[in-house]
Each structure stands twice: as structure tokens, then as C-alpha cells.
Write a structure and sequence with these properties.
Layout: H1 3-20, E1 21-30, E2 41-43, E3 49-51, E4 57-63, E5 71-75, E6 82-85, E7 93-96, H2 103-109, H3 115-129, E8 134-159, H4 166-175, E9 179-193, E10 200-210, H5 220-233, E11 239-244, E12 247-252, H6 260-283, H7 285-297, E13 317-327, E14 330-339, E15 345-352, E16 358-365, E17 370-374, E18 377-392, E19 398-422, E20 431-458, H8 461-466, E21 476-478, H9 496-499
Parallel strand pairs: 1-7, 10-21
Antiparallel strand pairs: 1-4, 2-3, 2-5, 5-6, 8-9, 8-20, 9-10, 11-12, 11-19, 13-14, 14-15, 15-16, 16-18, 17-18, 18-19, 19-20
């Protein structure tokens, strides 16, 4: 074949691929308020669809030749369903109109139940409404961690070791990253019973981890400096008294610390152990993430021991029936809930008027979930909020379509710390050196998880048993956001924090 023919064939194949794949990005807003609409479903057919993110943004890739018959079908709770021709679609904003509910139409299909009767029917139908049997779930999962060091003060009040001065301590504190974020994204299929705490298998198609390696907390650069200072000023047969307020402890010095050869051997061994742990961590990436995803898809009101107990322990909550809404061509009750006394959450339930299945719940905590503050040490779990959406499958039962969860915690320490070197073999006073400080640290952590299930296909126990995992899976390291990495794949559109993520410098992996 001549070169010109080969070039023509390659050009044709590339052109055909481009024609057969189209990506659409837009923002969905309320036509009246002009505010973004989160968690709207954008679909081409029953098997191709995504959900808009918290800010109403979405991106969907259509992996076929587009015809004049193809449309985007956009639906969301409380809004008129909208369909838009895909061919020649150029809009960046899609406005949805709220759907007017004809109450008489609802009452024709269902009697006017009281809130107590609705709750009783929810509980009575709970086991039959949700399909927790063997399924293959094609999904996309994103987990993000954000750390913010709000305060990091160490004041040196007294030191007999010149090198342990305020300037040196400040240099160590300045080296600590004040703000870090870490994002893991996974596209794949998970196999097994949806029911909580059951064995799962997973096939990861593609995965990434987005973070800045320079922000990984490590003291390797300071370890030698600390060791050299201690060896210079501290005697081999001394011991330390460590005091913080009323509390104190005694710590002996390992004499091998002063043996450079031994230290070098131990350091080398430590490095090897660290490498081995890292190797195992990468090898266990599939198991780790598989378990995380399965645990997250069961973090809902169906789990008996869940802290989202507003159905199981409904007598501890106040429920109010507000009105009706429209979702996926079906009417739903809109019911708010709040704790009577000690419970943790408030939110809104959306309940199908026909089968009394909860098809969506939005929840958030009303008070700290856990907290303590004792002798200058504090901890608070101050935030847990999320959304859970279920859809009906071919068996007329419900499976998870989408879930997100945001969790926030804060840790603080505000205490004095004193380290005293003592030696009983030195004549006179036993105290040799002293470093006295005031420590004040406050760290805030936020984790956010998102899961969308594109397809949930029933499988048999035999199909589950026959599937073989490929365990050697590790995520692709991304030092900065790369819009090309997920190009051609349907995922949850990333938020602005992920899109803006970039490393501090041009350090390579």
C-alpha cells in the first residue's frame, strides 16, 4: 500500500473517531432564581448519564455517532423534565422550570395519609423496596481531603541548648505545609452483594491521585540536625523528664543512639521498611479503595447501626409533611425532619407516594457529633452533611444512584511543654539541660466523598465467584489538574478547588 493511502486511512480513522465522540459541558440553573441546580440527572439513554455537581456543572461524553434523533434528557427533583437536541448543541447554560403540582392529581393515585401513616409504611416497605442482592455496579468515585493548619505557634521560653532557639524552631514550623489537599478518583466496576459488610470484587479501569509531593509532611531534612544537636549537648547516660502542665514522664536514652554506625544501620533498615510499606500500600490500593467504596455506598439509613437513624429511631425526631414534588415521572412526599432532643441530624426526605420508598434524602448535623476539651487538648467533629439518591431498577426495586458526604473535624493543643535532661552520674545538680516551650496548634480537616453509579446490573452468585480481580493496580500520580486525563470518560465534573490545583513548582515525580 502506498504511503498516501496509509495516510488517508489513518486520517479517516481519526476523523471517524472524532465524529463518533462528542463532549458536552454546561451549567444547569433555576429559570426563576438563576441559581445552580445540583444533582440533576443528564442522560442520553437508560445507560448513559451523569449528575451535575454541587454547582450545577456537568460534562457528558457521547461515544457514538450523533444523529438528529439524539437528545439530552435532563431531570431533577421539583423541575420540569427537559430534552435538548444534541446535534449542534452549543449552550453553556441550561435553565429548568419548576414543576407545578396539581394536588388533586396526586390524591387520585393515593389517599391523603397522615405523616404517622407515611412513616409506618416507609418502615413496613423498607426491606422490599431496596435491592441489596448481587450486582455489578459501574461507578465513579472521588475522595478529597483538605487540611488547614489554622495555628502553629511554638514559643521558646527557656533553653540551655543554643541551637534550640526560637529561630530554629520557627524554621521547622515554617517548613510545615499550612494548607494541603489530596484527591483520589476511580472509574471501575464493583461486584458483589450491595448489602453492607459483604465480600466485594473490583475491576478498576482508571484511577488518579492528585496531590503535591512537596506538601507531604516529613522531617527527614531536620532529623540529622536534631540528632547532631542532641549528640553535642546531651550525655550518653542521661535521661529525659518530659513535663506538660501537671503531667510528667521519664524517658531513657538508648545508648546506641550515640553509635553512628548503629544509627546508620538502623536508618537504612527504617528506609527499607518504609519502602516495603509503600510497596504494600500500592499493591493494596484495590482492596483499600474497594472497601472504602462499599462502606460509603452503605453509609445510609438502610444500615441498622448507621448514625443516620431518622427512620430506625423515628420516635426521636419531629417530622413535617410540607408538600409534594415531582421526580422521574412520579410524585413524592416532601418531608422535613429534625431531632426532638439529643439526635444529631436534620434534613429532608423525598418519599414515593406509591411504594413509600425514600428516593432521596438531604441531611446535615445540627450539633457537633463528638467533642472534648480537656487540659488544653481539644477535638471536635463539627460537620457531616450529604445527599443520597436512589433510582428504580428493572426489578421495580431501588439501588443507589448518587451519594456525597462532607465531614469536618478540628484538633487543637494549647499546652506548655518542658524537656529536662538529668544525669545521676554527674556530681552536683542532676539537671543538665532544659528546653521549655508553649505549644499552640489548631488543625482543621475536611473530607469529601462523591459516588455516582452509572449502571447497576443484577448478577448471580456464580458470576460473582467466577470474576477474577487484577490486584496489581495503582493510581496515576498527577502533580496538577489535567483536564485531558478523564477526557472521553463520564465522571462527576470536578469542583473549582480541583480544577485550580497545581504544584508549587515544576518538580517532577
Amino acid at each position: 500500500m502506498k504511503l498516501t493511502k496509509i495516510a488517508f486511512v489513518l486520517f479517516y480513522l481519526c476523523t471517524a473517531t472524532l465524529v463518533a465522540q462528542k463532549s458536552i459541558s454546561a451549567k444547569i440553573i433555576d429559570s426563576t432564581t438563576q441559581t445552580p441546580i445540583p444533582f440533576a440527572t443528564i442522560a442520553i439513554d437508560d445507560h448513559t448519564g451523569v449528575i451535575s455537581n454541587d454547582f450545577g456543572d456537568f460534562n457528558i461524553t457521547i461515544d457514538k455517532k450523533i444523529t438528529s434523533q439524539d437528545s439530552l434528557f435532563i431531570s431533577c427533583l421539583g423541575y420540569e423534565k427537559k430534552h435538548i437536541a444534541v446535534e449542534n448543541f452549543t449552550d453553556s447554560i441550561i435553565a429548568l422550570q419548576t414543576k407545578a403540582i396539581d394536588l388533586s392529581e396526586v390524591l387520585i393515585t393515593n389517599k391523603n395519609y397522615t405523616i404517622k401513616e407515611i412513616l409506618e409504611k416507609i418502615k413496613a416497605n423498607l426491606e422490599n423496596n431496596y435491592d441489596l442482592d448481587y450486582h455489578k455496579r459501574k461507578l465513579f468515585y472521588r475522595e478529597s481531603f483538605y487540611t488547614n493548619m489554622i495555628k502553629s505557634d511554638v514559643k521558646v521560653k527557656k533553653t540551655t541548648i543554643p541551637e534550640f532557639n526560637q529561630a530554629f524552631i520557627d524554621s521547622v514550623i515554617d517548613a510545615l505545609p499550612k494548607n494541603t489537599d489530596d484527591h483520589t478518583e476511580i472509574l471501575g466496576e464493583i461486584f458483589g452483594k450491595i448489602k453492607a459488610s459483604t465480600p466485594q470484587k473490583m475491576d478498576i479501569f482508571k484511577a488518579s491521585r492528585l496531590y503535591d509531593k512537596k506538601n507531604e509532611v516529613t522531617f527527614e531534612n531536620y532529623e540529622k540536625r536534631f540528632n547532631d544537636i542532641i549528640k553535642k549537648h546531651v550525655k550518653r547516660d542521661s535521661y529525659f523528664k518530659i513535663k506538660s502542665g501537671w503531667f510528667g514522664t521519664k524517658e531513657e536514652i538508648d545508648s546506641s543512639f550515640f553509635d553512628d554506625k548503629q544509627v546508620d544501620e538502623e536508618t537504612a533498615e527504617f528506609i527499607e521498611q518504609k519502602k516495603e510499606r509503600e510497596k504494600k500500600r500500592k499493591a493494596n490500593f484495590l482492596n483499600w479503595r474497594k472497601n472504602s467504596i462499599h462502606s460509603f455506598e452503605n453509609d445510609n439509613f438502610l444500615k441498622e447501626d448507621s448514625d443516620l437513624n431518622f427512620i430506625e429511631k423515628s420516635n426521636r425526631y419531629v417530622f413535617t409533611l410540607l408538600d409534594f414534588a415531582y421526580l422521574n415521572n412520579e410524585f413524592v412526599y416532601t418531608i422535613t425532619f429534625k431531632p426532638k432532643r439529643k439526635e444529631d441530624y436534620k434534613g429532608t426526605l423525598y418519599v414515593n407516594t406509591e411504594d413509600f420508598a425514600i428516593v432521596r434524602v438531604d441531611y446535615e448535623n445540627v450539633k457537633p457529633l463528638r467533642k472534648f476539651n480537656l487540659l488544653g487538648v481539644s477535638y471536635k467533629e463539627y460537620l457531616k452533611k450529604g445527599t443520597i439518591i436512589f433510582v428504580k431498577n428493572d426489578k421495580e426495586k431501588y439501588t443507589l444512584k448518587y451519594a456525597d458526604n462532607e465531614f469536618g473535624e478540628r484538633f487543637g493543643i494549647d499546652r506548655p511543654l518542658k524537656i529536662i535532661e538529668k544525669n545521676k552520674n554527674v556530681k552536683g545538680r542532676r539537671k543538665q539541660n532544659e528546653v521549655s516551650t508553649d505549644i499552640h496548634f489548631i488543625v482543621n480537616n475536611i473530607s469529601k466523598k462523591e459516588l455516582i453509579v452509572f449502571e447497576s446490573t443484577p448478577i448471580s452468585e456464580t458470576e460473582f465467584a467466577d470474576f477474577t480481580e487484577v490486584a496489581d493496580v495503582s493510581p496515576t500520580y498527577l502533580p496538577q489538574y489535567d483536564p485531558e486525563f478523564w477526557k472521553g470518560y463520564n465522571i462527576i465534573e470536578p469542583n473549582q478547588a480541583i480544577k485550580a490545583f497545581k504544584r508549587i513548582d515544576n518538580e517532577t515525580q
